[in-house]
Amino acid sequence: MPQPRPNAAPASLEKKRPEGWPVGSFETYAEAQAAVDMLSDNDFPVAELTIVGVDLIEVERVTGRLTWGRVIAGGAASGAWLGLFFGMVMSLMSGFWVTSILAGLAMGLVFGIVGVAVPYAASRGKRDFTSSTQIVAGRYDVICAPERAREARDMIALKARKFN
Q1: Full-model pTM
Q2: Which of 19, 26, 91, 129 is disulfide-compatible with 32, CB 3.0–4.6 A?
């Protein structure tokens, strides 16, 4: 009898390639999600379905130039929020509202600015821009366990014919 591995993830959470037969292919995630929702509305056992993003690419969109002014302003803003929070907590315990909030705010500003300025200085201008990254799929396939794949495919095709 096989022994379970210590600290092993449950079989449903293990990272493995999805298996099944394709029952629909869609241009957007919303369309694939709508197909699964339609199957669910028609009492199909949706636990046998998987939505798979195919032809994945990573897209990094450059959103702006990073300067010392932007770095310090961002650090000051995030530090101020954190300092304000800690200042309010300190004021609840000490009874000195204004002093505690101002001290927390000042410490938050200092630590916020230092916390972003040191790594930015260490980068020595090698990444002087801001960006956002996302994974984009070329299409989304809905796959199903082989035993129920034909039924799911037929239900999706019937729904598609109604809209055409």
Answers
A1: 0.59
A2: 26
